[in-house]
Specification:
The protein has 17 helices and 21 strands. It has about 450 residues and is of the alpha/beta class. The strands form 3 sheets. Strands 8-9-7-10-11-12-13-14-15 form a 9-stranded mixed β-sheet, covered by helices on one side. A 6-stranded mixed β-sheet has the order 1-4-3-2-5-6. Strands 16-17-21-18-19-20 form a 6-stranded mixed β-sheet, sandwiched between helices. The radius of gyration is 23 Å and the shape is globular. Keywords: ATP-binding, Cell cycle, Cell division, Cell shape, Cell wall biogenesis/degradation, Cytoplasm, Ligase, Nucleotide-binding, Peptidoglycan synthesis.
């Protein structure tokens, strides 16, 4: 094996009970999987084609786990009995093709960690709202006194928690990329919020492939399990046709009355399960906006399926504070509200953000455009947006999409410039909304960096 400076050889490999495992990607999920695999007696090798963040490197060194960065040593990787890959690595990556040619199983960190826990699993997926719903569900369960972990696309890795904690249940945010590499894993409660076009480059630009990926959350479920879904979402309903579901179904809707599940009646969320009945005014919810009624319904059904007390559920749904970078209030200056929704990296997320606004908006849009179709935003932009501030290297498609809908579209090239420009375009009572509808990699490290720079810029105004 190559021993250049990019490889850290901490200890000679120990042939564990399970043989050799290769882990591709040394981010949160990969490093957590490495720790669990080592704990289970595997000979672990971690390989990242990019640079590994210093704190992850320190963890791997501290545990004596061999790793490499900025390369893939094929002789090491192809000697593994199994490969655990980061959700961010596409199947078309050359190393993945070689692994599959050798018929070495490729799985996700979630699949691997699921083998070593008998905790109850609540899995939540959807194109939009999954982080909010996962966080809200965890908050409700924790408030009710359950011994519950939070993992998946959020927080500490599931594998690391399985290795170090003893939770009775987990709430997991599951992306389609994670679900793609899950085979035997089973959720006791599966939540599918919605399906809208996203990441289609990973699915041969075929919507049906992406839909199939989302429905993997229900695979392996039995009659004792639960499937919660949105009865108002056309792609979900279309996707259910021709598929069979063993689990008990609990739909939710704001358009029609649901016998067993959740619906909206006279501005009240109503949840009915065979054992339980719950009602709460939408005006009391901490999360406002139509999309958040759906998110609250999904979390509420989980709570009632688990037979949590109504007063606990009501209190939790009234006091929950949303996660950072998702419709996060940054403060008010001169009567102008500033909201950080940097996590809105697709058009749908921005649509949801605009839909929840109750004042005139100066909208900060832009970044790396994933082939966005801005058509769905046009009506809301006409109704609510007085000016658009572009934040990206190439803003032409935003200009083309909205030049007939707003009077002012301005280009900026930093978070500070965008915040300042938006502040000058807004007047008392308006909202400055950073909801970019695009990825952040042209000007920022990631959406968190974009959101943090925006928040810092607002504080400087």
């Amino acid at each position: 094996m190559s021993t250049n400076n990019n490889i850290s050889l901490q200890k000679p490999p120990i042939q564990g009970a399970g043989g050799a495992i290769a882990i591709l990607g040394a981010g949160e999920s990969g490093v957590g999987a490495a720790y669990l695999a080592q704990q289970q007696g595997y000979d672990v090798f971690v390989s990242d084609f990019g640079a590994i963040a210093p704190h992850y490197k320190e963890q791997l060194q501290g545990w004596g786990i061999r790793f490499e960065e900025k390369q893939h040593t094929e002789s090491e990787i192809l000697a593994a009995v199994e490969v655990i890959k980061s959700p961010g690595i596409p199947d078309k990556a050359p190393i993945i093709k070689k692994i599959k040619e050798k018929n070495i199983p490729v799985i996700s960190e979630i699949e691997f960690a699921g083998r070593y826990t008998d905790a109850k699993i609540i899995g939540i997926t959807g194109s939009n709202g999954k982080t909010t719903t996962t966080s809200l569900t965890h908050f409700i369960l924790k408030n009710a006194g359950l011994n519950v972990g939070l993992a998946g696309n959020i927080g500490k890795s599931f594998a690391y928690q399985v290795a170090t904690e003893k939770y009775d249940c987990y709430v997991l945010e599951l992306s389609s990329f994670m679900l793609d590499d899950m085979y035997r894993f089973k959720t006791d409660i599966a939540v599918l919020l919605n399906i809208t076009p996203d990441h289609l480059d990973r699915y041969e630009y075929k919507m049906e492939n992406y839909v199939a990926s989302k429905f993997r959350i229900t695979q392996n479920q039995t009659a004792g399990d639960v499937f919660i879904y949105c009865a108002d979402d056309p792609e979900t309903i279309k996707g259910m046709e021709g598929r069979t579901f063993a689990a008990k179904q609990y739909p939710f809707s704001i358009e029609k009355k649901i016998t067993t599940g959740a619906y909206l009646e006279n501005d009240n969320i109503v949840i009915n399960t065979p054992q339980e009945h719950f009602e709460m005014s939408i005006n009391e919810l901490a999360l406002q906006g139509k999309h958040n009624i759906y998110n609250s319904m999904a979390s509420g059904i989980v709570a009632k399926v688990l037979e949590l007390r109504n007063d606990t559920l009501r209190e939790s749904m009234a006091t929950f504070k949303n996660i950072e970078h998702r419709l996060e209030s940054v403060g008010k200056i001169s009567g102008i509200s500033f909201i950080n929704d940097s996590k809105a990296t697709n058009v749908n997320s921005t649509w949801y953000a605009l839909e929840s606004m109750t004042s005139d908006v100066v909208l900060i849009l832009g970044g790396v455009d994933k082939g966005n179709d801005y058509t769905m935003l046009k009506d809301l932009v006409k109704q609510k947006v007085k000016a658009i501030v572009c934040l990206g290297k190439d803003n032409q498609r935003i200009h083309d999409a909205f030049e007939g809908d707003v009077d002012v579209i301005v280009n900026t090239s930093s978070a500070a410039e965008a915040a300042q420009t938006a502040y000058h375009l807004a007047t008392k009572g308006d909202t400055v909304l950073l909801s970019p509808a695009c990825a952040s990699f042209d000007l920022f490290k990631n959406y968190e960096d974009r959101g943090n720079q925006f928040k810092a810029a607002v504080k400087e105004l």
